[in-house]
Write a structure and sequence with these properties.
- By secondary structure, the chain is α/β, with parallel strands linked by helices.
- The radius of gyration is 21 Å and the shape is globular.
Amino acid sequence: MKENQRREFLKKSIALTAGMGIFSAFAGYKSFGKPEKDMFFKISLAEWSLNKSLFAKKLDNLDFPAKAKNEYGIDAVEFVNQFFRDKAKDTAYLNELKTRCDDLGVSCVLIMIDGEGSLAVPEETERAKAVENHYKWIDAAKYLGCHAVRVNARGKGSNEEMQKAMIASLTTLSEYGSKEGIEVVVENHGGPSSDGKWLSGIMKAVNSPYCGTLPDLGNFCIQGRFENGKMNCLNEYDKYLGVEELMPYAKGVSAKAYDFDAEGNETTIDYKKMLQIVKNAGFKGRIGIEYEGRLPEDEGIMATKRLLERLGEELS
C-alpha cells in the first residue's frame, strides 16, 4: 500500500471508529417497542420539537402524529396551537386530526396555547378577553381527547400584581375546564413563571384539581437578553429546586433537551437528578420530549427518548 493510500485508509478508519462511538452513545439503546422494564412514567412528544420543520412547511400538523409513531415509536403527542391556529372551531379539521390519531393508536395528550392574550395582566377587560380566547382551545382539547391545555403566565406590572391577575384567570379557566373534563396547566416559561415559589403560590391559591403545572426541566430563565441571535440568561432560577416546587401540582412534565455528550447524557441538565425528583413526587404520568438544540430534529428527539428510556428503566 502506497504511503498516501495508507494515510487515507487510516483517516477513514479513525473517522469510522469515532463515528461508531458516537453512534453507540446515541443509538445503542432501543428506539422502538416497550422497554424491557416498566418505567414509572410514559413518554409523549411535544410538537415544538419539530417547530423548524413545521414553520418551514416541511411538515404539516395533520402529519405530526404519524411522524411521532412511525419515525420515533412514540404513541402520544402534545400539540402546539401555533401550527393550527385557525382550526380551534373547525370540527372537520379536528375530526380529521382525531381520526388520524385514532387510526395510528396515538393518544392526544394536550394542546399548548400561545398567542391568545396575556392572562396575568392586572387590567380586567384585557384579561377577560384573554381568558375568553382560551375557551375555544379547551373545547378543541375536549374534542381531540386531550386531558389538558397548557397556558402561559404572561403579563405586566409587579410580580405581586401579575400573580393576583393569574390567580383570577386560572380560577375562571379551571372552572370552565372542569365542565369539559380538561385540566389547565401552567409551564415555567420565562419571567416570574420561572420562579418556582411564585408559580406554586398561584397553584395553592387557585386550589383546583383542574389547575396544575407542567414543569419544564430546563426553562428557568427569569430574566434574559437576546445577544448575537440567542438568549443570554441574566437571572436563572435553580432548576432542580424549581422542579421540586412545581411537582406537587404537576399534570405532566416537559423534558427539555439541548445538547448531549458522547455517552448520550444531556450536557446542561442532570437528567438522573431531575427524574429522581419527578419520581419522588409520586408522578406517574407523561413526560413529553421537547428538544430544541443544535442537532437535527430527528436526532435530538431520539437522543432525548433514549436518555429517558435508559434512566427511566434504571430508576423504576
